[in-house]
Amino acid sequence: MGFKAAxxxxxxxxxxxxxxxxxxxxxxxxHELPRGLVAxxxxxxxxxVVAPKVELLSKYEMGSDNVYGELLHPFISRLLVDxxxxxxxxxxxxxxxxxxxxxxxxxxxxxxxxxxxxxxxNACNLAEIQQTEFVARSMLWGIKPGDVHLERGDFRKNxxxxxxxxxxxxxxxxxxxxxxxxxxDLVRMFLDLKEGCKIVSLKSFVADSKSNHNINxxxxxxxxxxxxxxxxxxxxxxxxxxxxxxxxxx
Length: 250
Fold this sequence. Notes:
With about 250 residues, the chain is an alpha/beta fold. Helix content is about 40%, strand content about 15%. The protein folds into two domains: about 1-30; about 35-250, Vaccinia Virus protein VP39 (Rossmann fold).
């Protein structure tokens, strides 16, 4: 078969599938992009924007809440797609969103409305540049991702974040290095979440023992918590696996 004949056969087959509604049906059943493509696009953006200036992210105060670490693409795909089964009509919020990697992955892979809030200036600056590159790369690939919203400052004091939390379906908090005070403040913020909202964290917001008369007693009252284990190679600060928690607002 010659090239022109092969091209005609391809076009005829594709047109028949369009007219039969088969392509539209398959697209309706597709709720996320292939993971390899998601990682490829996000890595291109990161390598162009963040990698040349990655040393800026190591400038933080030891013992503070502002310690930088990333949850890697496979971890986020497992969380949002496999475990929480997010769809494009839902709302995702990342509290302490760093350079915006997870916010953009949720918008790209799921197609959902995606929010992030970060207070470290260097991370915020890089996140905004990444967002510009993200829009351009998405257009290049013919992809319409979910809306990305990046906020600067302390999420405890950000009115837009407080507003979106009330309708959030999934919240991510990489609180591995957060101080007890900040984790307690987060529990108070969770009082306003809608029933069924999922919170993913690296530390539990519920005390091990109910005999502890502190703010974590509130966590026990409003949250059902499940502990899970992530495998090696899922986070940036160590190759080892570890625990994470999925809390559900009662």
